[in-house]
Structures are given as C-alpha cells and as structure tokens.
From TrEMBL:
<dbReference type="InterPro" id="IPR010255">
    <property type="entry name" value="Haem_peroxidase_sf"/>
</dbReference>
<keyword id="KW-0443">Lipid metabolism</keyword>
<keyword id="KW-0444">Lipid biosynthesis</keyword>
<dbReference type="InterPro" id="IPR011614">
    <property type="entry name" value="Catalase_core"/>
</dbReference>
<keyword id="KW-0349">Heme</keyword>
<dbReference type="InterPro" id="IPR050783">
    <property type="entry name" value="Oxylipin_biosynth_metab"/>
</dbReference>
<keyword id="KW-0575">Peroxidase</keyword>
<keyword id="KW-0276">Fatty acid metabolism</keyword>
<keyword id="KW-0925">Oxylipin biosynthesis</keyword>
<dbReference type="GO" id="GO:0031408">
    <property type="term" value="P:oxylipin biosynthetic process"/>
</dbReference>
<feature type="compositionally biased region" description="Basic and acidic residues">
    <location>
        <begin position="9"/>
        <end position="21"/>
    </location>
</feature>
<keyword id="KW-0560">Oxidoreductase</keyword>
<dbReference type="GO" id="GO:0006979">
    <property type="term" value="P:response to oxidative stress"/>
</dbReference>
<keyword id="KW-0223">Dioxygenase</keyword>
<dbReference type="Pfam" id="PF03098">
    <property type="entry name" value="An_peroxidase"/>
</dbReference>
<keyword id="KW-0275">Fatty acid biosynthesis</keyword>
<dbReference type="InterPro" id="IPR037120">
    <property type="entry name" value="Haem_peroxidase_sf_animal"/>
</dbReference>
Amino acid sequence: MADTGQHQQSHERYMGGSPEAERRIFERLTKELIKVQEKNRRAARAADIGRVQHEKAALGVENARLRFHDDLPDTLRCGFAQPGAQYPATVRLSNAGGIRQADGAPDLRGAAVRVTVSTEEHHDLLATNHPVSHARDAREFVAFAKAMAGATTRLHKAVALFVELPLTVGLATATRMRRNIQAATRRTVHSLAAETYWSRSAILWGEAGPVRYLLRPAGGAATARSDPERRDPQYLRRELETRLARQDVTFELCLQRYVDERRTPVEDGSVEWLESVAPAVPVATLTIPSQDLDTAEARAAGGRVEVMGFNPWFTTDDFRPLGNLNRARKSAYEASAAHRHGLRFVTEEPLRNKLLGIPTDTALRLLNRYVPWHKLPVQAGLLNLVFLRKALRRFNLIDTDVYEAPPKTMPVPAPVDEQLRTVRSYDGTYNDLSRPAMGAVGAPFGRNLKPVYRPDLFDVPNPVTVSRELLHRDTFLPATSLNVLAAAWIQFQVHDWVNHRRHKPGGKSVEVPLPPGTTWYNTPGGPAERVMRFADNEGVELPGDQPPILFANTASHWWDGSEVYGENEHTARFLREPDGGAKLRLEEGHLPLGPNGVPLTGFAESWWMGLSAMHTLFAREHNAVCDALRQAYPSMSQESVYHTARLVVSALIAKIHTVEWTPAILATEAIDIGLRTNWEGPPSSWLNKLGLWLFESHSLTGIPKTLPDHHGTPYSLTEDFVTVYRMHPLIPDDFEMREHRFGQRLETLGFHDIQGSAAEAAIRKTGLADTLYSFGISHPGAITLHNFPRALQHFERDGEIIDLSVVDLVRTRRRGVPRYNDFRAGLHKQRIRRFEDLSQDPETVARLKDVYRSVDEIDTVVGLFAENPPHGFGFSDTAFRIFILMATRRLQSDRFLTVDFRPEIYTPLGIDWVQKGGMNSVLLRHCPDLAGLLPRGASAFAPWRQVQAMSDRGERAGG
C-alpha cells in the first residue's frame, strides 16, 4: 500500500491554505458549473440537461477489456495492476464541448474508461486528446466554462474568449488559455480511434508515486485512414461504425512517472509532462472488440453508457487522483451527474429580480430603521417580508454538515432504488436523491446564527433563578385568539421535526447548581440534593478542537409524518395492521396501548391528552385515505396504498400547518396572504402578481409547483429553529372537560391527570369528540413571561424529575444558541441598549434587572417571551424571523412537496385530497357531530362555538 499521506504532503498544495478552505472554494465553483449546464441546455434548446463537457458521444460500449502486460515492471505493480490481469471495461469516446455540435466543428475529443475489477471495485480513467489542460487550476477551468457557456456562434465564442475571459482571469492568463485551446482544436481529427488521449492531471500509482497516463492508438490504428464524409455532422460516429465493423480498436495504456515539481508538476494542469523528461511506459492494452454498432443490443448498451457518470474518484486509495483539478472534479462531477439525471435542481433568479432587488432592498432597509414591516400597509409589508426572507436566506443558513477534506476515493454509487423515487423512505433518506443522507434521521441540526460556546456562562445567571423570577406562572395568562388544539398541534408537529438524543438516566448528566438554601429531588423517592440533574444530550464528535455543539436529530428533518409513522422501517411496519396491511392499527378507533400504558405510535414522548387526540385523528385519517385509494384503484398493492396514504397525510399536515395553524397564531392580513401564497400562489390581485413578477417571480405559483431549492445550504432544521419553537407556555395547568351535545361539564382535570399513561384512560373515558370540543372552546396560555406551566416545572420523565423551564434554558445555552441580544442582531434587528427597550411592563423590567447584569446577558428564550410582539402575533417578531426563513424552507427543500407533488406520485385522488382538505375536513370526517361547533370564517385553531348547558340556560332565565 502506498503512503498516500506522504505523496499528498510532498506534491499537493491546497487553495486557501488548507483542505477545508479549498473544499469551500470548490463548493462555490461547483455551483457555477451547474449554472453552466443549465445555460448550455437553454442555448441548445434541449429538453434535458447535458454534461458540463463531453456532451456529445460518438461511441459508448460495455464490452471492452483492459489487459495488463505480462512484463509489467515490478515498480508499477499495485492493486489491480498485475501482470496478465484482464478486466472488463466500459468506454465512451466523445467531443469535449458542452453543447452538441457537428463533428467538424473545432473541438477537443475525450475518452472515458471504467475498468471493472469487481462489483465493489472500479477505476475510472478520463483523458483528452491534448497533452495539457487549458486551465492551470479549478478556478481557471470554471472561468473558461462560464465564459463559453451557451456559445454556439463564432461571434459569441469570440466575445467569450477575447472579452469575458480576460475580464475574469486577466489578459495574460486568458491569452495562455486561448492559445492552448486553439492548439488543441485546430487539428483535423479523422478518427477517434487514431487519437492519443492524455490524463492531463496526475494520479497516485501505489508506491510508484504520482503518474500521468495516456491512451495511444495501437495495432495500426494511428496510420489507418478511412475517408468519412466530413460534412456529415456525425462523421466521427460513422467512421467508428465502419472501423469496428471490420477490426478491433486498440489503445495502449502508458504511464509517465513524476520527476520533479518544475518539469512534472502535480498541481498545474497546464504544464505538459514531456516524454523526453517522463517517458511513457506501456503497461496495458485497452481493446474495443470488432462489432456492429447498428444493432439493438449495441444501441441499448450505448444508451446505458450515456447515463453513466464518470468520475476519477471512483477508484481506490492506491490510485487516488492528485492535484487541484482532480480534487475539484469530485464534487463537480458528482453535482453535474446529479443535475443531469434530474436528481439535483437549479432555480435561476430572473435578471429583472436581481436588478430591481438591489435598490428596493436598500430602500426597505432604510425604511425599517423608522418603520418596522408590520406597521406598513399590507402590500408594502408583504414586499418587505419578501426582501427580509431573501436576506435571511443569504446570511442565516449555516451548513453544519461534516465534510471530507481532502476528498477521498469511493466506489461507484449504486443506482437509486426505483421505489425511493416515488415513496418517502422510512428514515428520511433519499428525499434529495443526489445526497441521500440530507435531512435523514441522524443528520445534524444546522444553524441560522454562528454558535457561541461559552462554558463559563453555562450557569450565569443561575438558570433556576431565571426560571423562578421570570418564567414561573403565578396566574394563567390566556391567548384568547386561540384554542388548546393549537397547543396540541404544535407539539404534534415538533415531535415530527426535532428530537435530540439524550443519554440514558444514570449516564452523562447536566448538573445545575441551585440557589443558596434550596434543594431538589432528582429522582422519585431520591434524596434532596443541592443540584438539579438531568440527562445530557448526546453530541456529534468533531475533529480537532471544535467545541461539542453539533447534535444529530433522531427524527428526520423532513415534514414526513414521522410522529405518526415512526422514524424507521421496523417501527413503521409494527404500527401497521398484521400481514402487511396498509392501515395503521387501531383498537375501537383508538391507538393500541403499549406495555407502559402509552399508545404505540411513531413518537410518544411527553405524551398527554392533546397529543393523543392529534395522533388518533391522523391515524384515522391515514386509514380513511387507504379506504379511498383501495376503492378508486383496486389494483394497487397494500404496500403502494400504505406509502401513498403516508404521502397524502404528510402533505395534508404540512398544508394545515402552513395555511391554518400559522395564520391563527400570527393573526395579521399580511401573514395570511403570505402563507397562502406559499402554498397556493398569490391572490388574483394584479398588484400582488405584478409585485412578485418584478421582485420574486418564484413565488408566482405556490411552492408545490416549483422545483426543490435548498438556497445554497443542505437542508436541515436548526438549533435556532428549535429555540423559537419552545412554546411550552401554551399548555394550561388544568382543563375543563365538557360534553359537546348539551354543553354539560364532565370534570376538571389537572395536567398530571392527562399526562403519560393517564392520558389514554382520560381520552377513552371522555371520547374523542368531547375531548376535541373541550379543547376547542378552551384557551391556551400566552407565549410570554411569567406563564410557564407549573405542571411542567415539576414532573417525571424517564425516571427523572425535571423542571422543563430550567431544561429549556440550559439546553439553549449549552447548544451554543446566542443570547437574546446577539440573536436579534444576527437576524438583522437593532440591538437593545436598555432593559426598557425589551418590555413596557415595569415589574418585568425590574425583575430583568434583578436577574441579569446587562441586556447582553438575557437568555434567548427569556428575551423572546419578553419582547412585545406585533399586533395579532402570538410570538415575537424576532422569533418570527426564524419562522419566515424556515417555514418556506421546509416546503421548498422537500421533493415530495415540490417537483414530486403530482398525480403520478400521489395519485389524482391523493392530490385532490390534499388540495381540498384541511383541519376542518379531518375533524368532520372522524367526528361529524362537531360540524355546527367549528368557527365560521376562521381556522379550527380559533375558539369554537360553545354549547350553552341547560343549567346555564335556567340560571339566565331565572335571572
């Protein structure tokens, strides 16, 4: 085995000074190459996206073979390169341009070879018929590709070479690149079988060190001449057809060994390795056997070769690609192939949006210094939100994925399982088909703000003191525009989105010192202690000295109904009816109970009666969709019915949250219009449509009719998102249960009476309809200070007694979420300078001053609760900024809510079910007696009509 690290250190130099800095540069360059692909497609007026280069193939065969010479030198024997070893090979010969044009047009030619050693081991060899690259490195390569993108005429090419390229790379570099290209393309090519192809970049060859390789014609091919009709735009293909019909086509694989950095540089692809300096040593023969290329079998093989993505990194460590151009190729080729195969998407911003956006954004930012967006007229406020979201997308999406740097070799990826193109996977993988792990179970939480890791401030000020002075509920403060179903709903959603893994009780714990003179019982029946203790989160180990602030999500990040269906295949199948039935298991309309008395469902932590109602409703909804699908499509298999029903229910949940729950808690006209635009497109008003056409045309159709767009950062939910969805004040401490037909009071229950295993006894006793009615007429708590549920400040979970208000504070600090003032500044709001800037309530200001030494010390959760929200808002404008960024992102990134939200995937019935459905339709399908109680002209999360009990009527009559 070669010492790869030694060769890397000796011969490779990284852009930006380090592998990680270079990776970030390559990432930007890769995005530019994808745009080149799209531009070439438009220029060629092609329906499909092509390769960035080498778009037009003249030959694609699967039956070639590579045989190493029997006298292979000892120093070059390594891995699969052994004397006499023979392997099947796939070969593609092509023109080098990114646009298909006649074979007689000036162009480079290329050869791509995949050598198959075994099902697990392949080696891709890529070469071009000129010994040097026009580009010294990846930056130059991309600059040239961008300049030439879409150039189909001589005038356009001249402008690209003599104007655009010099402006990008400088006159001297552009001149060198232009001369290299002209030297390579001026020569007349009579036959691709008679060309020599050079790798132009180095690879490692085991202990022999860096080499460049070349394929030169053998067996008389270099001197053989046919006389093709060169006016034929396909003459190179025709010549190969004629040649292969009568003889094999053979190339000799030769290696040139590294000598020194000056004459045989590894990093500079524009320098030729002269054979007088580095002789070409023959090591193997590549043979394309004689065959008829005009048969159905040969054409089918050619078609399969066309969809292949060749990449020099499909190899082993012994043959690792070297040099800047090769290192850039890995991400570039992966992305290009994914884009070409429809696995990755590009959404171009129209030029008018870019040009008009600059002055408009500047004007709005100036205006917002004096007038916040929510105090503007509706249309101006909506325009303000459009540009606020653009700024947040640009500055507040931080990628936390851990990448390989430098790149590593890899096997050829297996083809995507065809079923995963049409169904949600159990664990969230393959939503983005080009990056299967994106957003899946185990993917890390992202960031909207740069994390701040301050262990010295973990307990400053004491979180228990913060909780007691600023969060504790003395008197219940209701949110009168909502009902308790809104509180149950958001917990139902959060359990689908986020879940940090915790160490098991008795394992690694967080210890919070208590204020002097106080104690806490950390376990039932345990001793009084001077510290509050609870299980710590399990972090993701990071290389180097990075702080431990990266955490994985044990749920998938996608809106996939995992709280109902489970986050893995085992759970999902266990929750279904026996013998692979499509429906979810129910017992007399209720979820089956587990051994601990809590129902069997996808996510059952922090269980209470409100969650039970939501889970029961949507388990029933799944089964209703299954029945409808079976009736409409009798030939559908049980498996297809199940997966289609899951798609439908998950999309319906996403729609309800987008156009019903959120406008209920953010009750303003601008938000209602904006969120409905997200799903349905803008209102029919010509002014709305004109505004979007001018400034953000992607919003003209509604997100489900657009392409997936991650806005430059792999999709994930974020730690900041988790923080703003800490909405525990919504939960009341007690609940009055009433009967929905006559309004009679049934009983009053405390939260502990309807929590954990007690929840199911309560809901089965009360009944689903009466439970929903009781919650529908009751108000949740307001999301504000001094309103944290008392029941959640002392309850048992997993064998621990915890104060959830303290846990919320501690988790936020330890996960590196910035404190409130930094948080709001990072979201483009002015910092507060005084405690009085945060709250208008004198008592709150006094308590803040008692607890915190300065405004910069205020906890994020405390600041968000204390902030005076815009009129109609159920939470602060600062929290809303995370929401406006992430709410659309959860839809926009999801393939099944964008490009694959279509009848072919969901069935026509499924699409209709989602588009016509909502929370009211779900409630009435399963509890039709509630029809007259739902609010008119408002969502089901607004207070319902109360039935006046007979006793109340009598008292009124008597009065």
